[in-house]
Structures are given as C-alpha cells and as structure tokens.
Amino acid sequence: MRSSIALAAALASAQLLTGCAVFDRLQPAGPAEVAAMPGQVEAIHAAAIADDQAVFWVSSNGCTQKADLTAVVRPARDGAVITLRRLKEDSCGQPLPEGVEISWTFQELGLEAGARVTVENPYQMPRT
C-alpha cells in the first residue's frame, strides 16, 4: 500500500510541477458556488487520475467510507475540476496512519472517458 501512496503522491507532485499549466486551466469557484457545495473541503494525502478513475487517499479515524465523501465536478476550460468534500465526520477512535483509498469511476462522476481532470483539494501528509 505504501508504494501505491508513494506513486500517487509522485503523480500528484508531477502535476504541481507544471503549475502554470494547471493554474491556467482552473476557473476558481466563486463565493456563491463554494457556499452551494455540500460538506467541507477534504485535505487529501494523494490523488491519482488513471484508467478513467479518480482515486483519493484521505485521513480516517477508522470509519471513513465512500458515502462519507462526495466528489464535486465542475467544468474547466479544457476538462473538469474535482473537489473532494467530506459530508460526514469520522469520529471513530481507530486512526489509520495511511488513511483509506476511495475511488470513483469517470462514469460515476459524469465524465467522458479520457477526460482531462484536475484535483483542487489541498494536500496533507499522512499521519505517522
């Protein structure tokens, strides 16, 4: 599992290194758009977009499930922007240091196969 997290972090970092291209494509959500989104923005450990899937690694106190999160998709100039948001707090007492892996297919997200996608969430290091 550590190797998959490391790979995802490397992929995410590679996108950040091309920052001018990423930031040029993003259309920041306005205050009204942010207020209308469900839940709270979730800090993620890593994200990977591959094979028409969006995969995220998020913190968990032992109970985080896919239904506790939602992926909000909005159009960008040449693709889509995904913002992962937490709908339900994980109040369990069994923290998982590496977090949990949660994924959505492009079909679940309403995206066409091969769509260009950018992840807008802030990153945080896994707990040790």
What features would you describe in this structure?
- The chain is of the alpha+beta class and 128 residues long.
- It has one domain (2-119).
- Helices cover 26% and strands 36% of the residues.
- The chain has four helices and seven strands; from the N terminus they run H-H-H-E-E-E-E-E-E-H-E.
- The protein has helices spanning 2-17, 19-25, 31-36, 106-109; strands at residues 40-41, 44-50, 53-60, 69-76, 79-86, 96-105, 117-119.
- The strands form two sheets. Strands 1, 4, 5 and 7 form a four-stranded mixed β-sheet that branches. A three-stranded antiparallel β-sheet has the order 2-3-6.
- Strand 4 (69-76) and strand 5 form a beta hairpin.
- The two termini are 15 Å apart.
What does the oligomeric state look like here?
A: single chain
Number of helices: 4
Span of the ends, CA to CA: 15 Å
Structural class: alpha+beta
- In sequence order, what are the helices and strands, one letter per element? HHHEEEEEEHE
The total number of structural domains is 1
What low-confidence regions span 5 or more consecutive residues with pLDDT below 50? 5-27
In total, the number of strands is 7
Strand-residue fraction?
35-45%
Q: Please give the radius of gyration in angstroms.
A: 14 Å
Instruction: Give the averaged pLDDT, no decimals.
Output: 81
Using the alpha-carbon principal axes, give the shape.
globular
| Biggest sheet layout | 4 strands, mixed
Q: Helical proportion?
A: 25-40%
